[in-house]
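Page 42, continued from yesterday. The earlier attempt failed because a stray header line got pasted into the input along with the sequence. Redoing it now with the clean sequence only.
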Amino acid sequence: MHYRANDLMAAEAEVSREKIGGKAGEAQSMLYGLLGDGPKAARVIEEEAGRRELSWRTVEASKATLGVESKNVGGAWVWALPDDRLPL
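This time it went through. C-alpha cells are written below.
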C-alpha cells in the first residue's frame, strides 16, 4: 500500500483532535482538511475559520503547531502543509 504524507498527517490530526479536543483540535483538523489537496489562499482559510467560529489566533497557533508554511505569492498569502511545494 502507498500512502501520501498528507493522508497520514490527516489521520494523525484526527487522533490529535480527539486528544486535544476543543477549538485547537478543530482548527488543526480544518487545516489538514483544507490543505490536504494542496496550498490554499489564506483568505480561504480565514473564511472557513469564520464559518466554524474559530478565532484567527487559534488558527495561527494550529498553523505553528502543524508546521504549516506560508508565502506571499503575487500579493496574496498562500498556506501549505510542510510536504507541499509552495509556488515560487
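Notes: Residues 5-80 form a domain with the Arc Repressor Mutant, subunit A fold (CATH 1.10.10).
Reminder to self: strip header lines before submitting.
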